[in-house]
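The material for today's practical consists of a large collection of protein records. An example says more than a description, so a record of this kind follows:
***
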Amino acid sequence: MTVLEDKIKIMKKHLLLSLVFLGLFSAKAQRESLTSTRPKASSVSPVSTQVKDKNPEFPGGLGAFRKEFVSQFQTQPLLALGIQEASATAMFVVEKDGSMSNIKIESYKNVIIRDEFIKALKKINTKWIPGEKDGEKVRVRMRQPLIFKTVK
């Protein structure tokens, strides 16, 4: 392994640990109302934010989600620009089939950070176990903090 590969491996481990630490404090997904007075086009069902019966779950839990995110996250573009630390909040919808849609990043300081976080989230192929309300699968909006830090 080269020195660069060693540093990348260490950075990914640090990123994973940071996400796990942050996840401990934000284990519950923050929900917000998405009800709209405008009619919806086509047959898109509304997004539920008050799932009482069953929240969406990533197979293996949030730790498995973070691990998959870290495995997809590319640090090189950020490091090339001298970015050693970044944080943002990911917002997405877990669909009735368990897929993620409407992926957005908020609270970011640089477009490159936003773009790299979105790329990594879109590469995650593992489907969530969808949320349920009254025994029926529903769409649920999720929020997940994301942190990137290099090892100094």
